[in-house]
Design goal:
Blueprint lengths: L4 E6 H11 L8 E11 L9 E11 L5 E4 L4 E3 L2 H13 L2 E8 L8 H18 L5 E7 L4 E6 L6 E8 L3 E4 L12 H7 L3 H7 L1 E5 L3 H13 L3 E6 L16 H5 L4 H12 L4 E6 L8 H5 L3 E4 L4 H14 L3 E10 L5 E11 L14 H12 L1 H9 L14 H20 L10 E5 L4 E3 L32
Parallel strand pairs: 1-3, 1-9, 6-7, 11-12, 11-14, 12-13, 14-15
Antiparallel strand pairs: 2-3, 2-6, 4-5, 7-8, 8-9, 9-10, 15-16, 16-17, 17-18
């Protein structure tokens, strides 16, 4: 079982930390970290409260504060620590210290225990009962350990997920899982992948053609926890591409999330699946979204994509967005038949900069959802774009696009293609048997993927700071 506190660390922050505290001279060094907080009142799988910390900013300890350092100790003045605690209190952040054991061991020492207990008590004296201290330990061998002091008595162990071009987990305790059903994929990727997948918490937004296929693939890979989001019900026109759906589901007007959850449960592969019927912008969906390690965006609405576009950077939860474009020619044949997979994570261009989201359509979709009568009035007066004909969809290509997206997750976990991690943006022309990786000229003023103020900010009011 994963712990009740975990940390998402930006890959660029880990690289910077290593440059700050790991030097060839073998002397211990230290640095500061500030983290946002995602408070989860109820995890969808365990119904327990959880807390996720997200790395927001690193700060070097001023040289003037240094007192002494050697291969086995480092000490510095608390002047800068007081300033760190003040900022944490003013901005509702969690302050942390980072130090290194250049030659190991990958464990906190008794001296670390004593020093950090004093610093934790200092934080509570300065910031009150909400004063907390995060402690990170790095070693010269690449190990990372973390713990959170909520008082000065005993720290809470913290699991770490490093997010960037890859997804790398550092668990305090490896969970035990029955993995016999996945022995064949272990022959391909080694024994480490399946335990990571069993511990993974994945959200799927949209349970139509691509979403239902994505859910089935992830369950058969061995992902341990899935949460499904969709507000729609099964229709007869869905039956040719919605995996698991039956005519009886359409006749009974069953929710898509319930149908997909039923089919996954019937697999009996040990995946815990939670269906959430609703739109992801509704407040009741937030805990489930914030509980995920990765989210697959399988929605075709612009408002949902706009929300996930901000969410990925605020909460450091990678979003794998996908879409299928089928454009028939009027004279027959196809003008386009493309599957697209776009990864949203710190360092990646966002969907707005790529031109995938239309903000005007997103606005109109929000109006239709929240004020349907006003939407219809404006539609009659041509102030909003009316819903046109449904887009073409073919099950083989919706499923192939889901495969493309799930393969990208496997690449992020294993680097089976190359050591570069996942590709930010891939388009596969099924009609031409061609893969492309289109570049992107980012908007230099984009507040989401160019400016880094929100990367790891996590909880703010209002949610995702949409007023700014």
């Amino acid at each position: 079982m994963r712990g009740t506190t975990d940390l998402v660390l930006q890959e660029r922050h880990l690289e910077k930390l290593r440059s700050l505290v790991l030097h060839e001279d073998g002397v211990e060094r230290a640095a500061y970290i500030l983290c946002g907080t995602a408070e989860i009142a109820s995890d969808p799988w365990d119904r327990r409260s959880r807390q996720r910390l997200t790395s927001l900013e690193l700060l070097a300890i001023p040289p003037d504060d240094a007192i002494s350092a050697s291969a086995v100790h480092v000490t510095w003045s608390t002047r800068s620590y007081v300033r760190l605690l003040k900022r944490a209190q003013d901005e509702n952040l969690v302050a942390g210290i980072v130090h290194v054991h250049p030659g190991g061991p990958p464990a906190f020492s008794e001296q670390d225990d004593r020093n950090e207990a004093d610093l934790a008590q200092f934080a509570r004296n300065r910031n009150g009962e909400n004063g907390r201290l995060l402690s990170l330990l790095l070693t010269g061998q690449g190990e990372i350990r973390a713990r959170l002091w909520v008082d000065s008595h005993a720290p809470v162990p913290v699991d770490i997920c490093v997010v960037g071009r890859r997804i790398v987990f550092h668990h305090q305790k490896a969970g035990s899982h029955d993995t016999q059903a996945f022995d064949r994929q272990a022959l391909a990727f080694g024994p480490e992948l399946t335990p990571h997948l069993r511990g993974l918490k994945v959200g799927i937004v949209g349970c139509g053609g691509t979403g239902s296929a994505t859910a089935m693939l992830l369950a058969r890979l061995g992902v341990g926890q899935l949460v499904l989001f969709d507000d729609d019900v099964v229709d007869v026109t869905n039956l040719n591409r919605l995996h698991g759906a039956k005519r009886s589901d359409a006749d009974a007007i069953r929710a898509k999330v319930d149908v997909v959850a039923r089919e996954i449960a019937d697999m009996s592969l040990g995946t815990r699946v939670v269906p959430v019927r609703g739109w992801i912008g509704e407040p009741q969906c937030r805990d489930a979204l914030k509980s995920c390690d990765v989210i697959f965006g399988c929605t075709d609405d612009h408002a949902g994509r706009l929300l996930l576009n901000r969410f990925a950077y605020f909460y450091l939860i990678p979003v794998v967005d996908m879409g299928l474009a089928i454009a028939p020619r009027s004279e027959g044949g196809l003008q386009d038949l493309s599957g697209r997979v776009t990864v949203l994570a710190p360092g990646a261009p966002c969907l707005l900069c790529r031109g995938i989201i239309d903000p005007i359509l997103a606005r109109d979709e929000d109006l239709k959802r929240q004020q349907p009568d006003e939407y219809e009035r404006r539609k009659r007066e041509a102030y909003v774009r009316g819903g046109g004909n449904p887009a073409p969809a073919v099950v083989t290509f919706t499923t192939a696009t889901a495969c493309l997206a799930v393969d990208e997750l496997i690449q992020a976990l294993t680097c089976f293609r190359d050591p570069g991690g996942w590709v930010w943006h891939r388009v596969r022309r099924y009609d031409l048997l061609l893969d492309r990786r289109p570049g992107c000229e980012q908007n230099p003023h984009c507040a989401i993927c160019v400016h880094q103020d929100y990367w790891g900010r996590a909880d703010v009011e209002p949610f995702l700071d949409r007023t700014n």
